[in-house]
Request: fold
Amino acid sequence: MTLLVRDEEDIIRDNIEYHLSQGVDYIIATDNKSVDSTAAILKEYENKGILKYIYEAEDNYSQHKWVTRMARMAFSEYGADWIINNDADEFWWPVEGTLRDIFISTSPEINILQAQRYNYLLVDGNKQPFYKRMLYRELTSLNPLGKPLPPKVAHRACATIDVAQGNHSVTGIDNPSILHDRIDIFHYPIRSYKQIVNKIEKGGAAYERNTKLNKSIGSTWRTLYSEYKENNNLQSYFDEQFNDTKTVHEKLASNLVVEDRRLCDYIETQIKNK
Reply:
């Protein structure tokens, strides 16, 4: 599995522990200028021999280049069979069994697995871990621009793989054959006001510095960054995303969300109490 991270101390350890418990053998992580404890957490796992730590000092969010580098390294240096190109706020959930079971049982002619993403609601700002308080999953998720949340892909390892910006697609695989509906992705993009402001402030500025990417790429971050610069905050956007008890009940009654404790229960029983 590859990870590209920046200031993800509130979620990165749970992400790593979850995916290791699901059968991920090894992680290659690129840390793009984190200033919190993210680097220290990653290096803990590197010291255990289950993670390769890479520090990336560029600040232009060349995600496609950095993730492609990791994906090719996974093949050439670590002998990977399948690769998940992951973000810290994404948890790949198998429809049955474990992730390892899914990949092992996939027919040889299939070389790409596409996974749909589902957002979990921001419900409060208390001190509980994200997985204990974010328990309501949207049945259909949209991005902040109101467009369908695009899926992500895992792929068989190969020397010529090229991962697109956003990890939504890959090229460089001979005779690509995609299988759907074997894995869902539980997505926790907004976990606190501090977290989302930090993400957009740094990520939006990095996109602006990237002169090679088409301006249509990263449109969500670019739009939120424009709002941030205009208002010197993201309070209006954050307030729109926040769900109080009344709003949650209304969304439940309208079948827009469901209570989904699967990740919470899994982390509590399979990881925290092991």
